Amino acid sequence: MIKKIGLFIVLLGLTSFTAAKEVTIGDVTINLPLQEGFVELPETHFYTEFMQDFTPQTNELLVIQAPKDELTQTLEMKAEQFSKSIVFQTFKGTKYRQVSKAEFGQIKDFMKQNFEQISETLRQRINNEMDASSSKVSNKYDVDVALSITDMVPLEIFAETENHYGSTYLMKSSVAVDGEAADNDNILMAINVMLVKGKIIYLYVYSADENEESHQQLVNLAKLTAGRVKESNKN
User: Fold this and answer.
1) How many CB atoms lie within 10 A of CB 107?
2) What DSSP assignment string belongs to 161-230?
3) How far apart are CA 12 and CA 207, in angstroms?
4) Residues in CB range of 138: below 8 A, 6 or more apart
5) Sheet of 164-177, strands arranged across
6) Domain segments of the chain: what residues?
7) What is the pTM of this model?
8) Closest by alpha carbon to 49, among 145, 173, 185, 175?
9) Alpha-carbon distances of 135 from 52, 97, 160, rounded to whole Å
């Protein structure tokens, strides 16, 4: 999936990037630090628009970060994929109310207890969102896109603190563009749920590589990003 998205970016051409870090959720301002070597994509960037179309209706897309050098290479058509990307979302249901630590603890406990079962629920939800959005994306960009997650393998729970839960999954995806035979890509994904200033923040980190070293790098990047978010939003 990331490979195909990378291909779409060349259609946009050179554009400006922003280092803006602050987002407003309800009446709260939250700082989402830019990771070293990454750039924040503006709302008008193709990749941001594409990810917006595949954001669950229950969530709101906040910020996307991608490696700066890889974006440049992609725009110059020297590369066709991102090695990693970072996506921040929030849960709309708590946008205008505060989430207590006790409530967040219940969310965290549920995700931990259902770590393996959640993988199938996530796969079905992602595919439902893809089915609902594929036509929209195809019409908007005149590209026939078909995406599906064929399997979602739970890997590990790597973070469990008072305000952070993190786990990793291996997504096996099937991608077809303009009727071409579907490619099968394996994508590593770290799902982080954070409580920041009383708001739910979803932090997704993706990797196009699936080996053990890449998995550890993914976990390290997720921990680093979550840690910087925490430090940047101390009361």
Assistant:
1) 15
2) ETTEEEEEEEEEEEEEETTPPPEEEEEEEEEEEEEETTEEEEEEEEES--SHHHHHHHHHHHHHHHHHHH
3) 23
4) 144, 145
5) 38-40, 59-67, 84-91, 199-207, 183-196, 164-177, 145-161
6) 2-232
7) 0.83
8) 145
9) 14, 34, 38
pLDDT by residue for the chain (235 residues), tens digit each? 544 444 443 333 334 444 548 999 999 999 999 999 998 877 776 677 778 877 888 999 999 998 988 876 655 544 456 789 999 999 999 999 999 999 999 999 999 999 988 888 888 887 777 776 666 666 666 667 677 788 889 999 999 999 999 999 998 877 777 666 556 778 899 999 999 999 999 999 999 887 888 999 999 999 999 999 999 998 6
Beta pairing, strands 38-40 & 28-31: unpaired
Q: Collect all residues with Cβ–Cβ distance below 8 Å to 137 and sequence separation of at least 6.
A: 50, 53, 54, 143, 145
For residue 62, CA distances in Å to 76, 90, 168, 212, 217 come to 27, 7, 21, 29, 23
- Helix segments in the chain, DSSP class H: 2-9, 46-53, 68-75, 101-113, 115-141, 212-232
